[in-house]
Amino acid sequence: MSNPGALTADFPIRNDWSLAEIEALFDLPFNDLLFLAQQCHRQNFDANEVQVSTLLNIKTGACPEDCSYCSQSVRYDSGLEREKLMEVDEVVAAASQAQIDGASRFCMGAAWRAPRDRDLDVVVKMVEEVAALGMETCVTAGMLTDSQASRLQEAGLDYYNHNLDTSPEFYGEVITTRTYEDRLETLEHARNAGLKVCSGGILGMGEARKDRVGLLAQLANLPQHPQSVPINMLVPVPGTPLGASEPLDPLEFVRTVAVARIMMPKAHVRLSAGRESMSDELQGLCFLAGANSIFYGDKLLTTANASAERDRALFKRLGIRPMQVTEGKVAVVVNG
């Protein structure tokens, strides 16, 4: 990697990245890394177009998992009030408003370890009706079986999101109630059912750079790259074990976005949680590094997000336009 020009001609799809190769990308001078990432981005996407999603929490709290970052865990006193699964017509109304506001994908999040079949019946109906609006759809529902993934695919679902969160080595420091293999298995079930995959991680949980390297290695070396890769900045929630975490160096966050872009050239790399506290300048650097998807709206599940007004103003300043849906397909995102 001492000669970044060696990578400028071509950015092939690879599933055999070594840790040493990824570390070398992270170690590049900042300008060289962003130069490579921007070239990769332009080879695969319109550099001034960003996919816009809206995320709605359709069932809040009472999750039995112990994810150390999550306000929805029943194990932590985060002050969050539990709410039952929303009615289908409420969700469709929210999706319609999101579409009016400029979102092309509507993501629905439910705080479950794994959905029961009777709960999935309702989610399937939500997917069908939101898809009928001409939007992509997205649901967060925990671990899936093969048969459940197939049901969602038959309902018209395009994407299923299930984050790996961090490296296999650091994972046990964050979560003990679900294994890394559980997560990989859910992604496999989604792929086997013909669903596209949305999977990424969370930065700033106390991990080292080697863990960010390990996370990206896991994602890029899957049998097929995730079509969407959310890169979250931890939002510390009081009452959770990570509630007093120190913020990650912003330039390290940008580096991670850039390396993700180079390693997964055709994926939508999404700026997810944490944007509310990011400056416009930091977000602009992330777009330069190859990010081309955001969550739009004032809230992400239970934490604050950048306002739609601020995003519209930022897009105007940067000359960015929202990506339009060209096919009436569906995308589902899963919590965790």
Radius of gyration over C-alpha positions, nearest whole angstrom: 19 Å
Major sheet: size, sense and barrel closure?
8 strands, parallel
The residue fraction in helices comes out at: 25-40%
Q: Helices and strands, in N-to-C order?
A: HHEHEHEHEHHEEHEHEHEEEHEE
The coarse overall form would be: globular
List the helices and strands and how they pair.
Elements: H1 19-26, H2 30-44, E1 49-59, H3 88-100, E2 105-110, H4 117-131, E3 136-140, H5 146-154, E4 157-162, H6 168-171, H7 180-192, E5 196-198, E6 201-203, H8 209-220, E7 228-233, H9 250-263, E8 268-271, H10 280-288, E9 293-295, E10 299-300, E11 303-304, H11 308-318, E12 321-322, E13 330-334
Helix pairs in contact: 1-8, 2-9, 3-4, 5-7, 8-9, 9-10
Description:
The protein is globular, with a radius of gyration of 19 Å. Strands 1, 2, 3, 6, 7, 8, 9 and 12 form an eight-stranded parallel β-sheet that branches. The protein has a three-stranded parallel β-sheet with strand order 5-4-13. A two-stranded antiparallel sheet has the order 10-11. The chain has helices spanning 19-26, 30-44, 88-100, 117-131, 146-154, 168-171, 180-192, 209-220, 250-263, 280-288, 308-318, and strands at 49-59, 105-110, 136-140, 157-162, 196-198, 201-203, 228-233, 268-271, 293-295, 299-300, 303-304, 321-322, 330-334. Helix 8 (209-220) links the parallel strand 6 and strand 7. The relative contact order is 0.20. The chain has 336 residues and is an alpha/beta fold. Helix 1 packs across helix 8 (209-220), helix 3 packs parallel to helix 4 and helix 8 (209-220) packs parallel to helix 9.
